[in-house]
C-alpha cells in the first residue's frame, strides 16, 4: 500500500503553528518567549570561531534585554540601570532555554548572526521583580482556560490572521497556545478574561465568526 503524503497546505500550516514567534509553555508549564535577534563581533587574528561565539552571545543578550523590556518599570525602561546589566543582561545565557542560528555571514572582518532564541520568561520576570526593576503587575480579572476551534480556514494567510488576532487583537486574552493546524481548521488553547461568552463577542467583532458549539470551557466557531 502506498503511503500518501500530506497536502502542502497542511504542512505549511503545521510549520506556521510551530515556528511563529510568541509565548509558549515548556516542560512543567514554564513560560517560554521566542524572539529573533541578531549579534555581531569583530574577527581578529583570523579567529572566526571566536567571533562567531561572541556574536551569538551578543544576540542572546539582546534577546533577554528585549523580553525584559516589556516588564521594566518606566524609569528603568528609559535608562538601563547598572543593576540590570550586572544581574540580568551580563548573565543572559542563564535565561536561555535554547537557541538556533538562522543565518550568519562575515563582511569586512565583522561576523554577524541572526538567532532564534527561546527565553525563560517566568525566570526572567521573577528576577526582575526580586531586584525591584519590574513594574507591578496590573490587577486583572480571572482568566478562563478555553479550548478554541476555528473552522473554515483555507489559506495560510487566514491562519496567520486568526493567530495574530488572538495574540494581539483581542483584549483580555492572556495566553494563546497553538495546538493543531490542518486543512479547514485550527485549534488553540487560550486563557481569556470573561470566559466563553466574552470571547464569542470579541471574535465576532474581529473575525466575523458564527458559533457552532460552546460550553463553559470549549468553543467552536466557523469563519463566515
Morphology call: flat
Q: Can you tell me the CATH architecture of the largest domain?
A: 2-Layer Sandwich
Segments where pLDDT lies below 50 for 5+ residues?
1-29
Instruction: Kindly report the average pLDDT value.
Output: 81
Briefly note the CATH topology name of the largest domain.
Dodecin subunit-like
Distance between the termini: 39 Å
Strand order in the sheet with the most strands: 6-7-5-9-8
Main pleated sheet: 5 strands, mixed
Helical percentage: 25-40%
Strand content: 35-45%
Radius of gyration: 21 Å
Main CATH class of the largest domain: Alpha Beta
Instruction: Please tally the β strands and state the result.
Output: 9
Count every helix, treating DSSP H or I runs of 4 or more residues as helices.
7
Write up this protein.
This protein has helices at residues 8-19, 48-69, 74-78, 82-87, 121-130, 156-169, 195-207; strands at 23-25, 31-42, 96-107, 110-120, 143-153, 173-182, 184-193, 209-214, 218-223. By secondary structure, it is of the alpha+beta class. It folds into two domains: 21-130, Dodecin subunit-like (2-Layer Sandwich); 140-223, Alpha-Beta Plaits (2-Layer Sandwich), CATH 3.30.70. The protein has a five-stranded mixed sheet with strand order 6-7-5-9-8. Strand 1 and strand 2 (31-42) form a beta hairpin. The chain is flat, with a radius of gyration of 21 Å. The protein starts with 7 loop residues before the first helix and ends with a strand.
Amino acid at each position: 500500500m502506498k503511503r500518501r503524503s500530506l497536502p502542502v497546505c497542511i504542512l505549511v500550516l503545521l510549520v506556521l503553528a510551530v515556528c511563529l514567534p510568541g509565548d509558549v509553555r515548556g516542560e512543567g508549564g514554564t513560560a517560554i518567549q521566542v524572539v529573533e535577534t541578531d549579534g555581531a563581533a569583530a574577527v581578529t587574528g583570523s579567529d572566526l570561531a571566536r567571533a562567531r561565539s561572541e556574536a551569538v552571545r551578543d544576540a542572546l543578550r539582546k534577546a533577554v534585554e528585549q523580553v525584559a523590556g516589556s516588564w521594566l518599570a518606566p524609569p528603568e525602561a528609559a535608562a538601563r540601570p547598572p543593576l540590570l546589566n550586572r544581574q540580568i543582561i551580563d548573565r543572559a545565557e542563564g535565561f536561555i532555554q535554547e537557541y538556533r542560528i538562522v543565518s550568519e555571514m562575515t563582511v569586512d572582518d565583522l561576523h554577524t548572526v541572526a538567532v532564534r532564541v527561546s527565553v525563560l520568561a517566568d525566570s526572567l520576570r521573577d528576577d526582575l521583580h526580586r531586584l525591584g526593576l519590574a513594574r507591578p503587575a496590573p490587577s486583572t480579572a480571572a482568566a478562563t482556560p478555553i479550548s478554541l476551534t476555528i473552522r473554515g480556514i483555507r489559506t495560510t494567510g487566514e491562519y496567520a490572521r486568526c493567530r495574530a488576532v488572538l495574540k494581539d487583537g483581542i483584549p483580555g486574552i492572556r495566553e494563546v497556545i497553538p495546538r493543531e493546524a490542518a486543512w479547514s481548521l485550527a485549534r488553540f488553547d487560550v486563557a481569556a478574561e470573561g470566559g466563553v461568552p466574552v470571547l464569542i463577542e470579541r471574535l465576532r467583532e474581529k473575525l466575523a465568526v458564527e458559533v457552532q458549539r460552546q460550553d463553559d470551557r470549549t468553543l467552536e466557531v466557523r469563519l463566515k
